[in-house]
Amino acid sequence: MTETQILNYALNQFAGIDADAFELSSSYWQRKTYGKGEFYNEYKNVCKYLGFIIDGVFRTYYIDDVSAEEKNVFFFSKNQVVVAYKSFVTQTPCSYYTESMTESTVLYIHVNHLNELYAKSHHWERFGRLVAETAFNLAMNRAEEFMFRTPEQRYLELIQNHPDIFNNVPLYHIASYLGIQAPSLSRIRKRMVGK
Amino acid sequence: MTETQILNYALNQFAGIDADAFELSSSYWQRKTYGKGEFYNEYKNVCKYLGFIIDGVFRTYYIDDVSAEEKNVFFFSKNQVVVAYKSFVTQTPCSYYTESMTESTVLYIHVNHLNELYAKSHHWERFGRLVAETAFNLAMNRAEEFMFRTPEQRYLELIQNHPDIFNNVPLYHIASYLGIQAPSLSRIRKRMVGK
DNA sequence: TGACGATCTTAACCTGAGTTAAGAATATAG
DNA sequence: CTATATTCTTAACTCAGGTTAAGATCGTCA
Q1: Of all nucleotides in the shown strands, which has a C1' nearest the CA of A170?
Q2: Distances (CA, A) of B30 to A48, B20, B125
Q3: Most-buried pick from A100, A120, B3, B13 (CB within 10 A)?
């Protein structure tokens, strides 16, 4: 399958974008590759593109003003959308960095083109709603993990629910994502030997 | 102002719903009052209504399976929408309880009627998108509070940003909202005397 | 007003995460 | 296959929040 076919298929699965609706968008999609450590979007930058990951892993992180520590917020991988949602929707500067952690390939579309598609087609409007819902679910799940689970439970659930992330990301990035320091994650892992 | 006028005004402010667009919806809105402790929506119930709070305060909480503790997730008050968003959008059973903490008055609309309005009017479609964005912001802010702030910082920011909640809700409910136990909140408050 | 229930604080002890720094294990490149 | 950098674990200590139970304070209403 070509990359465009992969995209078409994914959009169909996700939002019922059929061949005709996809055709409306086809001239708008562009392709970009990222090296390890390259940014999809940076702090204070307005996110102008919605990306679909053909291959690779991205992380979105926050830099704490006080401790200057990086705190991982989201991971995005293959066949997922990558976007700084709030910045993209409101076209305001982003609070985060979104960085490629691997060699990556992305197909992306400009916010203006997407808005055109919303106006032209109910299918694409539906897509916009579903992206909003997906973003909500992502944020709400993240909030729930921190409100209701201990770091140990978050660790176990990450292994269960996102083995793709767990297996492809160094542990110190996992620790940051779980909201703890690397030594704490080591202790949790040690505690669990035998359980 | 009548309650309907309050609603009309708020919808206009929030999403540019003009007199004509409001007229489309006017026969759909119903009114309900809640006593202290009455539920807007309960665990395992599908949330079928989007409410606009004329007066009162609601809280959404989760009950921990293990500890059987209540954990407050959101507060909603006057001139805000009250809804179990995920349940409402997906029409699936809710994970939460949403309870009135005071005598309250709500104007509400059924999900089917709202979907009708989406189909009929771009104004209402816009409203739907904005509700989705509001829900995202609420969830994302909550996630950020827990990912990036200490309980003490969360407490200070609550006082700053939501004095209405802080002043109208008992401290043990605030503690739960901040993700800590009541004695911890007492210690934080004590620590801060003199700061 | 005074008695009750609700709310808030305090104390004592426990536990798990933070911090720092050192060292072990693992990858990667030359 | 060794040297080097990266990643992971461990140790020792500190500290904030959890837990439990007691007591203080506040509100309310008979």
Answers
A1: D7
A2: 41, 19, 21
A3: A100
